[in-house]
Amino acid sequence: MLxxxxxxxxxxxxGAAAAQEYPAKPIRFIVPFTPGGGTDIVAxxxxxxxxxxxKWAIAVENKPGAGGNLGVDQAAKSAPDGYTMVIGQTSNLAxxxxxxxxxxxxxxxxxxxxxxxxxxxxxxxxxxKRPYKSLAxxxxxxxxxxxxxxxxxxxxxxxxxxxxxxxxxxxxxQLTHIPYxxxxxxxxxLMGGQVDLYLSSVPSAISxxxxxxxxxxxxxxxxxxxxxPEVPAVAESGYKGFDVTTWxxxxxxxxxxxxxxxLVNGEVNRVLKLAEVRSRLAAEGGDVLGGTxxxxxxxxxxxxxxxxxxxxxxxxxxx
Length: 319
Prior knowledge:
Layout: H1 2-20, E1 27-31, H2 38-54, E2 58-62, H3 69-76, E3 84-89, H4 90-99, E4 111-127, H5 135-144, E5 150-153, H6 159-171, E6 176-179, H7 183-192, E7 197-201, H8 202-210, E8 214-219, E9 245-253, H9 258-272, H10 275-283, E10 287-288, H11 293-314
Parallel strand pairs: 1-2, 1-3, 5-6, 5-7
Antiparallel strand pairs: 3-9, 4-7, 4-8, 4-9, 4-10
Helix pairs in contact: 1-9, 4-11
C-alpha cells in the first residue's frame, strides 16, 4: 500500500514538473485530413496563434487517409508525453467506430480529450455553372431523374456523407455519392463539372462562395450561418427539425500527464478568446467553443451513441 501511494505521489510530482518545463521541444500536431479543409484551417489557426503568443514550436503535419483514421491512429499510438497531439472531429471520433468493422484505435480509451475548439454546419454547394439556385430546385431535379444527380463528400462515412443520407430520406430523393479523400480534389471536380453538388464544411467552401465560383444552397445547422446570412437552413426550407453540425477538438494520446493536459487546455482556451482568432474562425463559418476536457469527453460519449445509430440506420459500412 505504501509503495502504491508513493508511486502515485511521484507520478503526480513528475507530471507537475513536466508541465512546468513544457514544452521543452517542438510539438507535433497531426491533422488527419488534406490541407485546405475545415479541419486543417482550424488546426493551423490555433497552432499559429500559440506559436505567436507563447513561442511554442508546433509542427503541423497532414496525415490523411482512411477517413481520418490514419492520422488519429498515429497520434493514439504516440508516446503520451505531450509532444504529439491531434485534431479530431465528429467523423473520425464519433462516426468511424461504428462505420468501420475494425478501427485501429478506441477514441475513448486511446485518446485524452483536451478541448473542443469549433463547431460548424455542413453546407450544400454547387458550381456557378450549374442551374440550381435553391434546395427546392435540387430536390425537384432529383425527383425528375432519380440517381442522375451526383454529390461529392470528403469521404465515405464522413459527417457530410451521412448528412446527405439523412437528407435524401427526408426529401424522398436519390442522389449518387462520389466520395473523395478530402476537400481539395472534390472542390476542383465540383468547379470542373465532374460532380453536381458537394457537401462541405463551411471553412472549406466559404472563400469560393464569396468569390462567386460556388453557389451555396443550404446549411444543415438549425440556424443560418452568421458569415452566410443569405443562405437558408435546411430546416427552414421545408424540413423542420433538420439539424446537423460537426465539431473539431484537440486530443493527446491517453496517459498524457494531467498537468500537461490542463496547461494546454488553458492555453487553447485563452487563444480561442482572442478577438482575432474568433474573427478568423467566424469568417470561416465556425462557432468558437472552448471548455474543459471533461466537457469534451461528455460530447464525445453522447455523439458516439447518436452517430452510431445514424450509421446503423443508413446501412453504411467501410471495411
